[in-house]
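User: I'm curious whether this sequence folds into something compact or stays loose and floppy. Could you predict its structure so I can see for myself?
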Amino acid sequence: MPSAARHSTVRADPAGDTHMRRFTATTSALAIAAAGLIAASAGTAQASTCSHAYLPLPDSSCTPGAYNSGVTQSNINSTICVSGWTATVRPPTSYTNPLKAQGIIDYGYSDTNMADYEEDHLVPLELGGAPRDPGNLWPEPYAGSQTAHSKDGIETKLKNAVCAGTITLSSARSAIKNNWTTALQVTGIG
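Assistant: Here's the prediction. I'll summarize afterward.
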């Protein structure tokens, strides 16, 4: 969804119709996304709201990253350090594919083939990234010198270091959120 729709918030009003406003905001956001997808499939050019000039990093104004509050340093041995744990929190493609399609438009990528991108978590699930927060998801290209595949290896090394007690969860999250290409050097493990 466009960045304004991806990061909208709903505030309770004095009349108490928060649920109606949330429904309206959600419906509006879905309508905007659907309109964008229909226009994109019809070949109409869409103005990008996010810049791909930062590649291999995402545009931090569109994809700032977000943490899963259920993952903390004190519970890593029952969450991220358990083999297979990320599968228990990973959102289905029925959720991520519409975000990827809209993200490709938002980022203004000329290649609109969805297979050429991974809808990636900036702060990865294996470091306790927020699974469904649109601000933590972006269409990361498979093409280029530093790609989605490159980032996957860095994520694993950081998680292994956190689980071994070499670095803290906080330092790993901060390093990958700020610049995944330098995260290993910043944390001193690479």
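Summary: Residues 104 and 111 are 8 Å apart (CA to CA). The longest strand covers residues 117-121.
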